[in-house]
Amino acid sequence: MPLSRIKPRSDSALVRNMLGEIEAALTAGASREDVWETLKNEHGMTIGFNGFCKALMRARAARQERAGTPAATTPPLPRPGNDGQGKEVDCAIQNEEPTPPEAPLKGRIVTSSDFEKVHSMDFSDLDDKYTGKRK
Q1: Where is this region: Disordered (predicted)?
Q2: pLDDT at residue 116, rounded to an integer
Q3: How far is the first Cα of the chain from the last one, in angstroms, to the nearest whole number?
Q4: Residue 7 DSSP label
Q5: Cα 102 from Cα 119, distance rounded (Å)
Q6: pLDDT of 25 over the 80 cut
């Protein structure tokens, strides 16, 4: 049996082995979804789309390491959402990051000097229901 007929043992190995063809298809204008579907149909890949994108990212990073250059990150691609608007997404699952507040809330620790203020505070007039003492 020729070596070309031996199938990779994992889907990640399939992505690494076909990285040149995947890159050529993406450069020619194919979407990652199209490449993923083709690999599923023609090569029996079983991982989901996000797993494919993660494997692609790791294969690119490994190739960059072997070449001796730092791995470059690819910009996120626009993907239409349910409302038809383009949404910037990376291939990996993304959680919406909360936006930081404009100004810190009053009484919150913001800088290291705020810790010093805590040490000089008088806590004797606070509620003592957890200490067991009653006034």
Answers
A1: 63-88
A2: 73
A3: 89
A4: P
A5: 27
A6: yes
